[in-house]
Amino acid sequence: MSEATVFDCELRKRAGTGGSRAVRRDGWVPAVLYGGGQDPANIKLRYNQVLKAYQTGNLIDVLSIIKVDGEPDQQVIGRDIQVDPVKDLPMHVDLMRVDEKTRVTVNVPVRFLNEETCPGLKAGGVLNVVRHEVEVIAPATQIPEALEFDLSTFELSDTVNISNTSLPKGVEVTITDRDFTIATIAAPSGLKSQENEASDEGEAEEAAEGEGE
Asked: How do residues 83-131 score in pLDDT, each as one tens digit?
């Protein structure tokens, strides 16, 4: 698990559209803090910190820390973000208070290891990723950075399933009724064409033999 992002924040004095606009003009991002058995709070986060976290994928479904002057640091997870539809810049963030007892449903990215030694890829195959993320239920303070899949033994036409990774302690996938596919080692188009031609020739020969009989 990567080191938690730290956000400096302050309480917002004004809520609503006018208050949010004023906050943005002053270099902040309006946000709402909720959960943890406490009342929701209107806060604001430093724009440059939010932008960096957003652009690096360290905002939503990732454990972070908010620092408020005079108060203990709080662990939070970004649950939603509103962005400018034209500029793709953060406009508003929803944060949820969490602790070591909190369990959350999050999307975790997948990561492939040893692609350079994968037999199927070395033979000209292509890694066809079916799922770039997997939805899991995890302790809020122990969300895995990624689910890793070792490709060192996979051959052409093999399928990489969720069972081919080891889930961290306390983490479980939300899909439990099947061993679902993460990726496949697809044969190159040239090889597929040759296989199809061979299959067609075989079928033609079988048909001709059948007519001869």
From this structure: 999 999 999 999 999 999 999 999 999 999 999 999 999 999 999 999 9
Select from 38, 81, 92 the least CA-distant residue to 58: 81
Outline where the chain has alpha helix (H): 16-25, 47-55, 119-122, 189-212
What CA–CA distance (Å, rounded) separates 124 from 157?
11
- Domains along the chain with CATH numbers: 5-98 (2.40.240.10), 104-193 (2.170.120.20)
Alpha-carbon gap, residue 195 to 206, rounded angstroms: 16
**DSSP collapsed to 3 states, 104-165:** EEEEEEEEEECHHHCHHHHCCCEEEECCCEEEEEEEHHHCCCCEEEECCCCCCCCEEEHHHC
Cα three-residue angle 75-52-167, rounded to 5 degrees? 55
